[in-house]
């Protein structure tokens, strides 16, 4: 599976800066693919505020293909 941007279909890269639905920017550090059909997986980012956190990919307009 690949994690891609909804708008462009381009694959997400580690170190890439992404913007969430609120307009806040963060740097992608890693991701976890869905484990089963009911899972969305996670994308892990480092926010500009300095914290690390995992989010649903849709928060950053990303999806798995």
What this model shows, in words?
It is a single chain. With 65 residues, the chain is an all-beta fold. The protein has one domain: SH3 type barrels (Roll). It is built from no helices and 6 strands. The protein has strands spanning 3-5, 17-19, 25-32, 42-47, 52-55, 62-64. A 4-stranded antiparallel β-sheet has the order 2-3-4-5, with no helix packed on it. Strands 1-6 form a two-stranded antiparallel ribbon.
Summarize the structure.
It contains no helices and six strands. It is mainly beta and 65 residues long. Strands 2-3-4-5 form a four-stranded antiparallel sheet, with no helix packed on it. Strands 1-6 form a two-stranded antiparallel ribbon.
Question: What's the arrangement of strands in the largest beta sheet?
Answer: 2-3-4-5
The CATH class assignment is Mainly Beta
Tell me the major beta sheet.
4 strands, antiparallel
Percent in helix: under 10%
- Strand residues, percent: 35-45%
CATH architecture: Roll
Tally of DSSP β-strands: 6
Structural class: mainly beta
Brief descriptors of the model:
single chain; 65 residues; mainly beta; SH3 type barrels; four-stranded antiparallel β-sheet; two-stranded antiparallel sheet; 6 strands
């Amino acid at each position: 599976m690949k994690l891609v941007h909804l708008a462009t279909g381009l694959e997400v890269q580690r170190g890439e800066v992404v913007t969430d639905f609120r307009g806040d920017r963060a740097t992608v550090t890693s991701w976890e693919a869905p484990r089963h059909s009911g899972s969305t997986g996670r994308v892990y980012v480092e926010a500009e505020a300095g914290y690390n956190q995992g989010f649903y990919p849709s928060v950053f307009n990303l999806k798995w293909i």
